[in-house]
Amino acid sequence: MMFPLARNALSSLKIQSILQSMARHSHVKHSP
């Protein structure tokens, strides 16, 4: 029962990290 919860947590963390990295890249691109 703990495995699915761990997977969900890991997936959410990965998604957040990916979104943050994408946001940083977009900001860098927009900046001159």
UniProtKB/TrEMBL annotation:
<dbReference type="GO" id="GO:0006123">
    <property type="term" value="P:mitochondrial electron transport, cytochrome c to oxygen"/>
</dbReference>
<dbReference type="InterPro" id="IPR008433">
    <property type="entry name" value="Cyt_c_oxidase_suVIIB"/>
</dbReference>
<protein>
    <submittedName>
        <fullName>Cytochrome c oxidase subunit 7B2</fullName>
    </submittedName>
</protein>
<dbReference type="GO" id="GO:0005739">
    <property type="term" value="C:mitochondrion"/>
</dbReference>
<dbReference type="Pfam" id="PF05392">
    <property type="entry name" value="COX7B"/>
</dbReference>
